[in-house]
Amino acid sequence: MRKRIQMAQQQGCHGVDPGNVDGYTQSDLGFNLTYDNQIDYNRFLAREAHNHGLAIGLKNDLLQIKDLLHDFDFAINESCEQFRYNVQKNCLLYQPFFDARKPVFHIEYVRSPSAAHAQRSAICSNRPSDMNTIIKVALTNYKVDC
User: Which of 24, 56, 124, 132 has the maximum number of C-beta atoms within 10 A of its C-beta?
Assistant: First the structure.
């Protein structure tokens, strides 16, 4: 990852967005990562990014937000309107980022352009107002914003 971060810097990127930084929640993968293992790794990523002059985003690691808030510059969440942690909508778990005035980028995925337009009002009105949201059709370039 150190080399990938360095490559991002060399290519003129302003920031990085490492994915799957919540491996400790996926015990079925066989790695037996602990909460603390993940904290250490995520902080390593943040240090490397900052040492290379890059911003870094925390992606989808909802349960470690409070511990990692000061290490990361922004957050990215995929589909927080669809999922819940306990009974709370996942989008609301980003409150520490909102309180720290750090950006949170939110992506909701839908199956078609017509679904994007049909669901736009519901998605955009239910998300926290501090969130920057786009609605993407699967993994295509088609998107609608809030």
Answer: 56
